[in-house]
Amino acid sequence: MIRKFEIKSHDGPGRIGKIDGKTTPKIFHKNEMKIAPSEGSSYNIDREIAEFNVKETLKLAKENVDECDIAIIQGSKYIDLRIDCLKRLEEIGYNGFIIANGDALLTNPRELVDVIISLKKEAKKSSYFIFPFAELSFMPILAYMGIDGFLADSANYYSHLNILQTPTKAYELDTYPIYEDISQKELEEKNLENMEFVIKEIRAHMKNRSLRNLVEERSGTTPQNISTLKFLDRTSMDYLLEFTQLF
Q: How far apart are CA 148 and CA 7, in angstroms?
């Protein structure tokens, strides 16, 4: 059986921890992951379809548990289905999870907060969460809510869209020609370099107990960012007070 990642508790979200001996939050690369196949779906679909996809995802995850160490939490916009998927995947033996439909959640601050906080509250302490395709300005608040890792594939994804990711803004290079005649591969490398910087930045603020300051600073970079923080503070203050560094 493939060895699962071992995660050491970091006393809750917003604090430095370890996954397989490596500091979190961290960047996950495909060559170090064995992701169980799943039945993917769009975010905004009928419940019957979402239920079918969760059922198929659980079936595939069980069939591949000996070869895979990370599973995908499906359930579309239905939080109860997401929670059920999480718990049953944990029962199968997984403790590493990718949250499906990350791109859709980033455009829906209310749903983003509800999904992440609900999953974190219901998960075992040994479980860890990976968020796919996050814009760099979103990474501090995602880590603040308890996300443990981010997919390196996002650097490649945005490079194909000709978007330069920076810690504070995503630049469409067709509109903002910051780099002219840059290749897709070079843009991917720059995006990954900036992603690695943001990870170091988050860890440094965690170490200095000032992650909340970074989150508030970045909240003004996009309307979605500020809406997410406002909704988080309004609906999940008990969670923040229990698990995060809130000054």
A: 10
151, two tokens = 């997919």
Which amino acid, residue 244? T
> pTM value?
0.89
Contact 69, 60 (CB under 8 A): no
Residue for token pair 């965690």 = 206
How confident is the model over 82-111, as pLDDT tens digits?
999 999 999 999 999 999 999 999 999 999
Which residues face 17 on adjacent strands? Answer: 24
Pair 85, 74: CB distance under 8 Å? yes
Q: Are strands 96-99 and 128-131 parallel, antiparallel or unpaired?
A: parallel
Using alpha carbons, list the distances in angstroms from residue 245 to 13, 26, 54, 179, 206.
Answer: 9, 19, 34, 38, 8
